Amino acid sequence: MNIMLFHSTYGLRPAVHEAADRLRAAGHQVQVPDLFEGRTFETAEEGMAHQDEIGRDELLKRAVLASAPFSDQGLVYAGLSFGGSVAQHLALADDKARGLLLLHGTADLEEGASVDELPVQLHIADPDPFETHDWLNAWYLRMRRAGADVEIHRYPGAGHLFTDPGLDDYDAEAAERTWKAALGFLDTL
Questions:
Q1: Is 90 exceeded by the pLDDT of residue 111?
Q2: pLDDT average, residue stretch 15-25
Q3: pTM of the entire structure?
Q4: In terms of Cα–Cα distance, which of 113, 120, 119, 61 is closest to 86?
């Protein structure tokens, strides 16, 4: 499977490369574009400020340009937190997308978004400070209405970016459960 994996608001940190290596070890081809052009951040607030400086449209443009050379192959779009929102936007706009793997984050749907049974798997902390229960319920309903085949995995007590061993949010047990389910999901595509 060809996977385009987008980093979190912290930037292209070692945890993103570790995630890509885990996916490669399972036989997948993985691209990890750097939407922040080499910048990484120590806090989510610094990363979000940098995102705001760059702007949503420019970040999506960078993501599209990184994905374009591979999209004819039928990509699985994947992302960590902020990267999940980027992946979601691209997957819903790409009629050749094979799947969408969201770790720690979602995005609002564009008006009139429509897909043909796009397989979607979301892994999310419960509760998550950035993805409230009300938001996730509404997101799920909008994704289903758009035609996506959605499955959600919740991890009670885990921190927001619980798969990143370099952060305080890290939860080894939840991370292992996430990767096991994610690799199983990818095997079905």
A1: no
A2: 97
A3: 0.97
A4: 61
Asked if 18 and 171 count as a contact pair (C-beta separation under 8 A), the reply is no
Under a CB-based contact definition with an 8 Å cutoff, are residues 1 and 189 in contact? yes
How much is the pLDDT for 7? 98
Answer whether 75's CB lies under 8 Å from 101's CB.
Answer: no
Structure tokens at 76: 């699985």
> Tell me: the pLDDT tens digits for 148-176?
999 999 999 999 999 999 999 999 999 99
Contact 166, 133 (CB under 8 A): no
φ/ψ of 44, rounded to 5, equals -65, -35
Residue 28's identity, in one-letter code, is H
Listed in order, strand segments (DSSP E) in 75-177 are 75-80, 99-103, 119-126, 149-156
Name the residue type at position 89: H
From CA 107, how far away is CA 86, in angstroms rounded?
A: 8
pLDDT at 178 over 90: yes
d(CA 102, CA 134): 18
**SS3 state at 124:** strand
Cis peptide before 165 (omega within 30 of 0): no
Question: Among candidates 114, 128, 131, which has minimal Cα distance to 169?
Answer: 128
> If you search the block for the tokens 């994610």, which residue do you land on?
182
